[in-house]
Amino acid sequence: MSKKNVLIIGAGGVAKVVAHKCAQHNDVLGEIHIASRNIAKCEAIIGSIARKQNLKVPGTLQAHAVDALDVPALVALIQKIGVSMVLNLGSSFVNQTVLKACIEAGVAYLDTAIHEDPEKICETPPWYANYEWKHKDACAEKGVTAILGAGFDPGVVNAYAALACSEYFDSVDSIDILDVNAGSHGKYFATNFDPEINFREFTGQVWTWQNREWTSNSMFEVKLTRDFPVVGEQSLYLTGHDEIHSLSQNLDVPNVRFWMGFGEHYINVFTVLKNLGLLSEKPVTTAEGQSIVPLKVVKAVLPDPASLAPAYTGKTCIGDLVKGVKDGQPKEAFFYNICDHAENYAEVESQAISYTAGVPAVAAALLIADGTWDVGKMVNVEELPPKPFLTKLSELGLTTFMQDAEGERQLF
Amino acid sequence: MSKKNVLIIGAGGVAKVVAHKCAQHNDVLGEIHIASRNIAKCEAIIGSIARKQNLKVPGTLQAHAVDALDVPALVALIQKIGVSMVLNLGSSFVNQTVLKACIEAGVAYLDTAIHEDPEKICETPPWYANYEWKHKDACAEKGVTAILGAGFDPGVVNAYAALACSEYFDSVDSIDILDVNAGSHGKYFATNFDPEINFREFTGQVWTWQNREWTSNSMFEVKLTRDFPVVGEQSLYLTGHDEIHSLSQNLDVPNVRFWMGFGEHYINVFTVLKNLGLLSEKPVTTAEGQSIVPLKVVKAVLPDPASLAPAYTGKTCIGDLVKGVKDGQPKEAFFYNICDHAENYAEVESQAISYTAGVPAVAAALLIADGTWDVGKMVNVEELPPKPFLTKLSELGLTTFMQDAEGERQLF
């Protein structure tokens, strides 16, 4: 099997990285199309690729306007341009429609984050079962390859989990996914994604898989402090996250948790805004009678996340802390990657948070293209062989390290 | 001389205290009229007075609607109801028009805060000379008594300064006015006055009189920590305030400063809001294209200051720390008052911040009524004899203490 010509949906920070990386491998991937509601943002990405000379061989690199909530329009675009693969990097609200269009058109589908309903905040599990997994049968019937959550987290961390279970442990008791951004954007305060999406993650309950049951906590209730390779001591907080659901279903592991690193300053600003009611999505009325959603005002005064990348310095560290048993002995290992904001910006004009999310999607696309991961059904990343993925990832710029009792060493 | 029948302008927290206290002395003051743009707020104050049975003898207690920026309307009201005294407790923006109306009608005038131009934030000195003092000649020509700044600060603290200079020191080197609210309203965050007015005081430069010169600092730049009588250790910050200007001109004192107490929590919330741009009076545009002034949104989400009084607990401590020389020896004394939020609420349904500002205005009104302070010209409080004022204040519920090398004792 071999699949060529890709359509990238979306024109945000992650889509930009994906477009750059696809362009660097257009000898394999063929035509590169970028579609978004706002065609000017697609054109800007093409301009960035030209500026960085990232198109490997002469070929198609084209922008399109499309409403990703409009299934017939998506199908028509896919058929018109003749792609065999759609890389969905649009907002979390469009997964269902893009997936339906791919099934209808019979092309491969890939995304990096779970579907969200704009009306629901911090939805209760089972997340994938509420949305994407309802299309499993349709994918299998039509032989459509659909790889869910192929970013870093979810994505690479799922592959780390699969690798740990298959190669390094006889049994695993816990997988703690640790996500630290030890970088600095130099602003008083900013969010790395759209503030509305960013704050939505942290205003409700957080769900984790503990003792084979869903467990609920409030945000910033449970804290973990750990000394990390390269980035040093960091504080993280128990958070809900997409991959907890699929890992809890696909791997026989009693505890799957996700921890996000936050500095004291971020938590302080967040807490003040939340307690004052300024993160509310419900409109308030001013003394002058104007009705306004406070969160939209906060978004208006914060820096545009896209403006942060040029000045971003420092590193990210994301990985899986795995605890279990090997050869009858207790064992602990941390599988991780380190990424550098400024290096990423020099290569693709994006910071490391977008880079780590986008590069794995292109590694997965290359594995679909060469047949390795072109499985003709819907899967999450942990259901696929991890070694080809981690090898490809290393070639693309994201290396994998392991830290255990014997020290730190590069695996891929 | 004897003056009767008073018109209260305004229907906010301080006006409410003034109305209660005037009612408690209507045997001396005669008819009590309350006027505001919103007549319902005046009626609510009359309801509160009835509920607390604070009208001493049967008599007139009447609400009126008036626009305090409309001089002819004010003159017509003064003449129609036949008052001889106007107590201006309206917003800081109406001093000039109310004063003009009093001069035109030939009745006594009194206020508790300096005039402000709504377009100017943290204006540079000389403050009184920019507004009220321009009417000094007109008051003298018509024999109109106009007492400026007859609240607590300005007001009582000016009388403390005059008392210190005339009775307790041969020469004074510095007067530091210290204003501490050690009370708690039980909310996550709230301002004690209209948030717009409250934050205006702290967003720009602060001006103080040091070494006989105007000195500028930024807000929260200079901190003072001191152990106070009753309320214990408190942190205060150098702030600009009305009375610094008049005291610097009327007393021969090289250093006059004002310090406001702030808790760490208030400063933290203020700093977050200010640094994010949420205290800005300049409109921003949301992603949806709506234009909105961020400060008005902050005001909309904060508790209504008027709603705080019933649950307010704790005490205020406001006074003058005076340093100088007496009988050839260095001397230091703190003249101060302690006020209790819950006691004030029990008496007049207002917290201590409104109480301390309103009661002195009524003490001054009683001294105008009996002729003691009916001077037929425009003056600031430090230009009047302090002892009758502090004696009257003590009768009305605000006692004066002094703390020096010999300990603490009640003076009035």
Model description:
- 2 copies of one chain form a homodimer.
- With 412 residues, the first copy, chain A, is an alpha/beta fold.
- The first copy, chain A, has 2 domains: 6-152 and 349-396, Rossmann fold (3-Layer(aba) Sandwich), CATH 3.40.50; 156-347 and 401-410, Dihydrodipicolinate Reductase, domain 2 (2-Layer Sandwich), CATH 3.30.360.
- Helices cover 36% and strands 26% of the residues of chain A.
- Chain A is built from 15 helices and 19 strands.
- In chain A, the strands form 4 sheets. An 8-stranded mixed beta sheet of chain A has the order 10-11-12-7-15-16-18-19. A 7-stranded parallel beta sheet of chain A has the order 3-2-1-4-5-6-17, with helices on both faces. Chain A has a two-stranded antiparallel ribbon with strand order 8-9.
- In chain A, helix 1 (13-24) packs across helix 14.
- The longest helix of chain A is centred in the last third of the chain and has 18 residues, at 352-369.
- The two termini of chain A are 26 Å apart.
- The interface between A and B is medium-sized, with 26 and 26 residues.
- Chains A, B: Residues 151-397 form the Saccharopine dehydrogenase-like C-terminal domain.
- Chains A, B: Residues 6-147 form the Saccharopine dehydrogenase NADP binding domain.
- Chains A, B: This is Saccharopine dehydrogenase-like NADP-dependent oxidoreductase.
- Chains A, B: InterPro entries: NAD(P)-bd_dom_sf, Sacchrp_dh-like_C, Sacchrp_dh_NADP-bd.
